[in-house]
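Retry 2 of 3 after timeout on previous attempt. Resubmitting structure tokens to design endpoint.
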């Protein structure tokens, strides 16, 4: 699915209390990171910039960007 559609759906789910806000925030961060990388921004700069924007540490941004999805059994 398109990232924008997923984010739109997550916004609705958050408003209805079906999904925690951090799930939406993480999806937005991943999308913004991919856009920055596509624009040629270095990873370290992207982590720092996104950290400032979202009030998180660069390490937290890195963990969000590189986290692997849990597989359901």
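Retry 2 succeeded. Sequence:
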């Amino acid at each position: 699915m398109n990232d924008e559609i997923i984010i739109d759906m997550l916004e609705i789910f958050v408003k209805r209390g079906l999904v925690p806000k951090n799930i939406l925030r993480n999806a937005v961060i991943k999308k913004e990171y991919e856009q920055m990388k596509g624009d040629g921004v270095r990873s370290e700069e992207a982590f720092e910039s996104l950290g400032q924007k979202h009030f998180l540490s660069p390490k937290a941004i890195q963990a969000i960007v590189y986290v692997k999805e849990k597989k359901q059994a």
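Attempt log closed. The chain has a mean pLDDT of 93.
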